[in-house]
């Protein structure tokens, strides 16, 4: 899967996520052609135009993680996991198994993490298991 990592240097939420997760990145999604499947606060799991996604952030980076994009597509329309996001940042064991935040969504669709523990995965953890895209874009 092509995965896009992002950060917005002027956004306080982006800074807080990066600070608490020791990450260069605060958001992550899965590229689906000209779209990105992502979990967005207050919106939930959505399919966003790639260009619109890139315009929201100061910096982005595209990498590869083995996985099944169909697992993420099946979750489009699900709610955002606010409790899980804050639980992860505050090291508390709270999450809603039927709601999703960005890195939890990508971890669930990846082959790198057991879905049972996806709610504990940060953008930085995903970056660690990702690889640079090869010349043919995979």
Please describe what this structure looks like.
This protein has 138 residues and is of the alpha+beta class. The chain has one domain: endopeptidase domain like (from Nostoc punctiforme) (endopeptidase fold (from Nostoc punctiforme)). Helices cover 32% and strands 22% of the residues. The chain has helices at 12-21, 50-55, 69-73, 82-89, 102-109, 123-129, and strands spanning 2-7, 27-32, 35-40, 44-49, 59-64. The chain has a 5-stranded antiparallel sheet with strand order 4-3-2-1-5. A hairpin with a 3-residue loop joins strand 3 (35-40) and strand 4. The mean pLDDT is 87. InterPro entries: Papain-like_cys_pep_sf (IPR038765).
Q: Name the helix and strand elements from N-terminus to C-terminus, one letter apiece.
A: EHEEEHEHHHH
What is the spatial order of strands in the main beta sheet? Answer: 4-3-2-1-5
Oligomer: single chain
- CATH H-level homologous superfamily name: endopeptidase domain like (from Nostoc punctiforme)
Helix-residue proportion: 25-40%
């Amino acid at each position: 899967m092509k995965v896009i990592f992002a950060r917005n240097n002027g956004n306080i939420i982006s800074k807080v996520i990066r600070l608490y997760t020791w990450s260069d990145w605060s958001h992550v999604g899965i590229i689906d052609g000209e779209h990105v499947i992502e979990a967005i606060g207050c919106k939930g799991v959505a399919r966003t135009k790639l260009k619109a996604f890139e315009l929201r952030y100061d910096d982005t980076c595209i990498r590869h993680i083995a996985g099944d994009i169909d697992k993420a597509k099946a979750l489009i329309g699900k709610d955002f996991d606010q409790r899980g996001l804050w639980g992860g940042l505050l090291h508390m064991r709270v999450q809603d198994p039927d709601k999703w935040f960005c890195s939890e969504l990508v971890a669930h669709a990846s082959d790198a993490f057991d879905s049972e523990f996806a709610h504990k995965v940060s953008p930085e953890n995903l970056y660690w298991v990702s690889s640079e895209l090869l010349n043919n874009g995979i």
